[in-house]
């Protein structure tokens, strides 16, 4: 098999964050863990490029929030909530594939 030997790395190489996390203590904490922080600076103009990558995550959360049962967590048990999450993800994938097939 190709790739690096040993246990797989569990920490990410880079962490993207918005201006809310712009503080030296967060940067120092990430560097100490061996993770490169990419945190937007306060007081600088927009256009750092972080938004284009974070937009994908925000869009995924918005799609999950279309389903009220996930937006407001009614279930106390984790396994039931995770089951609904899996169901919603499969519904979203099915809709996406159906839309792509229609083209």
Features:
single chain; mainly alpha; two-stranded parallel ribbon; extended; 8% strand; 103 residues; 2 domains
Annotate the secondary structure layout.
Elements: E1 14-17, H1 24-32, E2 36-39, H2 50-64, H3 68-71, H4 78-102
Parallel strand pairs: 1-2
Structure write-up:
The chain is 51% helix and 8% strand. With 103 residues, it is mainly α. The protein has two domains: 11-50, no CATH class; 65-103, no CATH class. The chain has four helices and two strands; from the N terminus they run βαβααα. It has a two-stranded parallel ribbon with strand order 1-2.
* Topology order in helix (H) and strand (E) letters: EHEHHH
What class would the helix/strand composition place it in? mainly alpha
Q: What summary fits the major beta sheet?
A: 2 strands, parallel
The helix tally amounts to: 4
Count of all domains: 2
Percentage of helical residues?
40-55%
The global form is extended
Number of strands: 2
Structure summary:
This protein has 103 residues and is mostly helical.
